[in-house]
């Protein structure tokens, strides 16, 4: 058999591998729902992940407000609130807060969002390292109050977010990479 024949015999296998790798990169779970603008981003736990979400919204050409220590009044007028879950003792210290201060702040933000009928999206992109005891306090506070959750696969190894979504009947999208947020945001906000 010539090398050319061998190459052509490998094409179906290579096509299968390519298709599998593309399918693997597509977020799994529920399809992203439509959401309205303006968007506001804040953190629940003071991890830097909320800033990463803000940068990806900018990259997606979706205007959004951002404040890591936003109080409830700051989200007024928003249609969608992104609460990025993940506790960071370093972030709390830099913000001049302790975990109880942050729990009170996030609770007020959630109450205001519910009162003003703002669509709440919980995002967890910190992976397994943001699933410790400190993060759990913020995840347990925020996730059950969301209308939609986006979680990075390595932060959902125990199925916490997907089980919660099924229990409270909300869509959950599992992503492999943080950059997968760009396509989700573009779908949510109908950006081409």
UniProtKB/TrEMBL annotation:
Residue ranges constituting the DUF6305 domain according to the UniProt record: 37-189
Family annotation (InterPro entries): DUF6305
First and last residue of the signal peptide: 1-25
Protein name listed in UniProt: DUF6305 domain-containing protein
Annotated source species: uncultured Spirochaetota bacterium
Pfam families: DUF6305
Keywords: Signal
């Amino acid at each position: 058999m010539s090398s050319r024949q061998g190459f052509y015999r490998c094409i179906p296998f290579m096509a299968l591998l390519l298709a599998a790798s593309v399918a693997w990169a597509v977020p799994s779970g529920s399809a992203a729902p439509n959401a309205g603008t303006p968007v506001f981003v804040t953190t629940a736990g003071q991890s830097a992940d909320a800033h990463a979400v803000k940068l990806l919204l900018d990259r997606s050409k979706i205007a959004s407000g951002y404040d890591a220590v936003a109080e409830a009044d700051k989200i007024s007028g928003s249609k969608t609130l992104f609460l990025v879950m993940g506790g960071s003792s370093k972030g709390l210290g830099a913000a001049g807060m302790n975990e109880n201060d942050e729990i009170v702040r996030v609770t007020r933000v959630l109450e205001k969002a519910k009162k003003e009928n703002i669509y709440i999206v919980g995002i967890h992109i910190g992976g397994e390292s943001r699933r410790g005891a400190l993060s759990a306090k913020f995840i347990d506070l925020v996730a059950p109050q969301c209308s939609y959750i986006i979680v990075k696969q390595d932060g959902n190894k125990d199925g916490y977010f997907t089980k919660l979504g099924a229990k409270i009947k909300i869509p959950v999208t599992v992503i492999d990479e943080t950059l997968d947020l760009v396509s989700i945001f573009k779908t949510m906000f109908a950006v081409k």
